[in-house]
Amino acid sequence: MASRVSGCWIGKSIGGTLGLPAEGKRGPLNFSFYDPVPTSAPPNDDLELQLVWLHLLERRGFALTQRDLAEGWLAHIHYMWDEYGRCRWNLRRGVPPAAAGVFENWFVSGMGSPIRSEIWACLCAGRPEHAAAYAVLDSSLDHGAEGIAGEVFLAVMQSLVLDGVGLREACARGLAAIDSATETARALALAFRLHGEGVAAWDAYRALVAAHDHDNFTHAPLNLGLIGWALAYGEGDFERSLLLGTNCGYDTDCTAATVGATLGMLLGEDGIPERWKAPIGNAVWIGPGILDIAAPTTLEELTARTLALAERFAATPPTATVSVAAPPAVALRDLPGTLLLEPLDGSPPVPWANGELPRPVLAAGGAEWTWIVGEETRGGALLVALAREGCRLLIDGAPVIECPAGVRFVPAVHRPAREARAAFTPTKPLHRVRLELRSRSVEQDAAVILATPNKHLTSWTGEVLPHAARL
């Protein structure tokens, strides 16, 4: 077991390092080795968030709740990317942890939780039902059905591989553990079916992309399908699998890291070629968004602490599976940071806070509102105005953003279309904001976002919310 757990974390580090420079690129790509060749593995959230759970497990034991993980998010995870930022924003506003993953979160189907499967697999090696329960608990904080399905598939599959189950059987049992109605299950089933039918690897790749492509390169169903594709066509060979998991493109640091971790579990530390291990060394580096945890400094330390936890879990596993509360209804009007948008057609005001726009505003072709400048944006703010059919954002009557039609709709502060974002420095306590949409279709995607200079969501109402990000 020690060799397999060590192989897991080494493989995770190798894959994350290899895939990071290609993140967001569409495949096929042409990697044959690291490019650039590293001298150590860089920080990567694929591993870092699992170190937070390691920290919590060591201190609180195995009877974790959604509330425990929510407290972990607020105290230790300060990244603003996509679902991470929406999770923090929701929790800061008082959204119950059971609803934080699905409330006003466009990124419910992102890759942020599938990449966190290894800690649960290692903790629950040979206990796939427990691995699945922890995966659901974990992913429910920042995801909906698709992100949850992705993490459950991987946690179950990897827990079986760690227990000596063959890769093909483990994948089949992982797939059986998730809802067959999810897009994630369909993408995985397609990858495995095409491989079983003898379809050439890159022909199968093109079929997967045609069926599951998405504006968001971190869309979990497509990326889980690509992980399944790389595992199937890699046929247990570390290098072949790893390169497929990178050259497929899309969320490559995640796909390659997960493939690398899984092959490391399958082959053990000694089964990973030395040429892949040598350049990354054995250090574990933590980025600026993970704070106040006792993080391991080496892969050896990470392996030893993981094994110690697994030994404790084997001796005293929970008497019942981890329970996850159903998402409760949340009243947007009752949350701090909520304001009333004034639709341009004169219809009644609509509650809103930040992000995707409500249907009455879409039908009205836009809205106006008053921005009360708060402490977090007094020295400057970042604005995003994004609509698939085009829009214009004005402040005090002056155009600030002109977003053309046809841009990719990804309402993320750190990676929207260039034309959809702007920096703005407030000049007075109140500003009047106006959004004009090019279309009145209620089916279009449209969003407006206010963020701090460090790209965290913040309030249009000027309210100072607790647990401000320290990144």
Topology:
Blueprint: H1 2-19, H2 45-60, H3 66-76, H4 82-92, H5 97-100, H6 118-123, H7 128-139, H8 145-162, H9 167-176, H10 183-196, H11 201-212, H12 220-234, H13 238-247, H14 252-267, H15 274-277, H16 299-315, E1 339-343, E2 350-352, E3 355-356, H17 359-364, E4 366-372, E5 381-387, E6 391-395, E7 398-403, E8 421-424, E9 430-437, E10 446-451
Helix pairs in contact: 1-14, 1-16, 7-8, 8-9, 8-14, 10-11, 10-12, 11-12, 12-13, 12-14, 13-14
SS-based class: alpha+beta
Using only CA atoms, what is the Rg? Answer: 22 Å
Beginning-to-end CA distance, first to last residue: 37 Å
CATH class of the largest domain: Mainly Alpha
Residue stretches low in confidence (pLDDT < 50, at least 5 long) are none
- Spatially, the strands of the biggest sheet line up as 2-1-4-9-6-7
Order of helices and strands: HHHHHHHHHHHHHHHHEEEHEEEEEEE
- Strand tally is 10
- Strand fraction equals 5-15%
How much helical structure, as a percent, in the residues? 40-55%
Average pLDDT for all residues: 96
CATH H-level homologous superfamily name of the largest domain: ADP-ribosylation/Crystallin J1
Summarize the biggest pleated sheet: 6 strands, antiparallel
Shape: globular
